[in-house]
Design a protein that fits this description.
Residues 8-154, 183-331 form the Sodium/calcium exchanger membrane region domain. By secondary structure, the protein is an all-alpha fold. The chain has one domain (2-165, 175-334): A middle domain of Talin 1. The chain contains 13 helices and 4 strands. The strands form 2 sheets. The chain has a two-stranded antiparallel ribbon. A two-stranded antiparallel ribbon has the order 3-4. The radius of gyration is 19 Å and the shape is globular. The chain starts with a helix and ends with a helix.
Length: 338
Amino acid sequence: MKQLFFEFILMAIFIIISGTYLSKFGDIIADKSGLGQAFIGGILIAMATSLPELVTSISSALVGAPDIAVGNAFGSNTFNLVILAFADLLQGKGPLLLRVNYSHLLSGLVGVLLSALVVFSLILSHFMNFNLSIFGVGVDSITLLITYIISVRMIYRYDQKNPLDPDDPVKEDSNPDYTLNKALMGFAACAVVIVFSGYRLTITADQISMLTGIDQSFIGSVMVAAATSLPELVATISAVKIGAYNMAVGNVFGSNIFNMTVIFFADIFYRQGVLLQDAKIVHILTATVGIVMATIILIGLFYRSRRSFMWMGWDAIAAAAVYFAGVYLLFQLGLNVI
């Protein structure tokens, strides 16, 4: 048992280190290719830091662990939103959301929409036994991918028409020693490490679940999700430290959007059936917790209250409280779900 936990921690460390450098190389690629800050934070860096979730969920699908695959996607979303609460604490006095642009409302709402689509699919498949598939891939998973593609295009076009405030820090070339090709090679090397680490992390998590009796839903939604979300934590903290608050928030919301497409790719590699049909209904709890947290943060972004407690906005405090309550409920349910 100790060896399993040691390997789990070791693979998590590999993901942290590789994910951190992956985010750095992604930033360099976006900067040197001239894609701009909005694309950096909301799309490219979000996709880069979400690669661990993608690899881990695909690996879970390959070994026949649908609950770890789905739980990882939803659990990562909730953990990412807690990162915003932590970032709020680090950035100093006053709520973090006072410092960011209204345009993040769009990406936040898209994340809520994608999560709601998965909840709707889980309800249909478990209570109405309704599930369509094309070549073994659920229509619900395909719908998620199509919605994601349309939404990313919409977000990109909106950001082009409504650029971030001119007062936001302008990115300078802080990596003159890196060429675009060198950054691409570094990005690929980090991706290889993450692929290996994510696969081993999934195998280890599955074995821990079997030996401890803890449900796969809890393992995937909390342990694996926290491990694979650590690159987002590092990237967000780094952005806050340099005052790039829009990039920090954009990274979190963008990662949450991309995490929902992870279900589609995991469904492709899950050959025992249709992923969301075989996943347990308990994932609705994790999804609902994420939706509630995102809604609280979006309300805070729109209302822009200046009140805070211990340097944190009340929206961040409320979101964190919902997260920990959800983890407790999921653990209690996980002990009893068969």
